[in-house]
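Structure tokens please, single chain.
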Amino acid sequence: MKIHVAKMSEETIEGYKHVVVSDNHINFMDISDNECSEILANDVLDSFFSDKTEDCLVSLVNKLRLGGKLIVGGKDLRLFCKSVINGSIGTKDASQVLQNTNSMPLLNDLMPIVQSLGLKVLSTQISGIHFEVVAQRG
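Here you go.
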């Protein structure tokens, strides 16, 4: 099973089951542990408070089968601040981002957590203020 973890308002992706994420919660009610071959959660970390980031990752990994792939991401605080300082993001847009984001973990801080959960990092990608980590459960 492939799932897309996203807010209710986001479009569904063909071939993926839409799983709703809200503040500090992913609705995995009808998905068993070790059931997913792929989890696309490219903005999920924005919905969790910083002290709940590891809990979020644990719940995602629990649903992932051995050999399964996890794509997880969010906004990086360091990239966000840099973009505001250099003028790439104006104050109005920056305020909007802050209003719609519960936390912005740093990519460098996230990597050890991902690896400690038994995932092998396959790649990382940064685009603007957003990052994604692609990892596989071993």
